[in-house]
Design brief:
This protein is mostly helical. The chain has helices spanning 26-48, 60-144, 189-197, 205-216, 218-235, 251-258, 275-287, 289-309, 315-322, 325-337. The longest helix is centred in the N-terminal third of the chain and has 85 residues, at 60-144.
Length: 341
Amino acid sequence: MSDSRPEPTVDLGIYSRTHVSDGIDSTDKMALILSAGWVFVCVLFLVIVGLGDGATLGPLRFLIAFLVVVLPIALLWVGTIALKGARVMREESERLQASLDAMRQVYVSQAQMAATAMGPNVERKIDELVKRQRQTETAISSMAIPPMPESAPASRPFGTQPQAPSDEPPQEQAALAFASEPAPAAVSIEDFISALNFPETTEDREGFAALRKALADPRASRLIRASQDVLTLLSQDGIYMDDLRPDRSRPEIWRRFAAGERGLAIAGLGGIRDRSSLALSSSRMRQDQVFRDSAHHFLRAFDKTFSHLADGLSDHEIAAMAETRTARAFMLLGRVAGIFD
């Protein structure tokens, strides 16, 4: 035997009139009493005083007497009807409000029941969509960046170009009589690109190692410190490079920039389309002198460093450099400064 009980009906206020009067109500009774009282007063006045001899007004005295009796009664009933109409409108408004409250309660109850029943399924679907989106972005990134050659050259120092193989044997340099201090080890291109992206987390040991090597190199540290300054200033407005998804540009366009081309020829480098980030950065550039100076210093450092390195970078290295946080900051601030216009 089923224990199911019928669900209680929801009162929508349609049949919830508290008072319905089809006959004479108290307002009508009061109007009748006042009307009868006024007629009695008028009749008593006519009996005692009379209408006069008619020497002055003549026939108009009957019209005036009629208006004196009828007009107050008419005004009284007009007020009574208006009062009853206002009361009916108030009752209808209360019933309508009750209906709206009941419908809102039903909607909220159904929404809560649906959320309770479908919540886990919806969250699971959202998680699946996020995973698929990340897989798609990874696949697109792997397609956009050209693959490394099988026989990749060994890491070379920062600022040097790859040397062509020579058939001549290396010449030995004669030992000098005096001793010179050893030059500081230059950071490799791979470590420099990793430093431009900065460590991912506090446990990213390889990222911190690459950053220390880059900061030890005077030429590389100039861009690293300028990038760190603008990234810190941008984060004050809630702008983080990890949230930006710029359009990828071909390495040829980056080489044009390194060669000195500006304007529409390198417009593809301004791949930041996030309107809020562009608006906040543009406003900060106009109003904050410190931000403006830091941004221009960073743009000059990026221009000088990349122009110096571009000839010695492979297409894969340029593509990897374009994916760093420093390059994204350059795309954002470059658009704000009008480099790509």
